[in-house]
Amino acid sequence: xxTFFKRNWKTLSxxxxxxxxxxxxxxxxxxxxxxxxxxxxxxxxxxxxxxLPCVIHNMRYVPFVFAGKTIEQDVLEGxxxxxxxxxxxxxIGHFRHK
Length: 98
Hints:
It contains 1 helix and 8 strands; from the N terminus they run H-E-E-E-E-E-E-E-E. The chain has a 6-stranded antiparallel beta sheet, covered by helices on one side. A hairpin with a 2-residue loop joins strand 6 (about 80) and strand 7 (about 85). By secondary structure, the protein is mainly beta. The chain has one helix at about 1-10, and strands spanning about 10, 25-30, 40-45, 55-60, 70-75, 80, 85, 90-95. About 5% of the residues lie in helices and about 40% in strands. The chain is globular and about 40 Å long. The two termini are about 15 Å apart.
């Protein structure tokens, strides 16, 4: 999927310094440390207090971290449990439909 987005969609910065650069409908791809796969999500229309957007994505069930269903969550920088990072996800792709 990453190859498809690189070829057919506009490639954008993966920098999180300016929340305005992240728009609803943008695709984000992370390296989450798995040797088997990457993780993908769509920027949603909800924002944190600092303006950074939430992401619509689906993860397997992890107690207290992921519900095991498609959900809009604050995971752009990686998930947190009780305000403690449980894994820093590295953004390796940010794409917008041309």
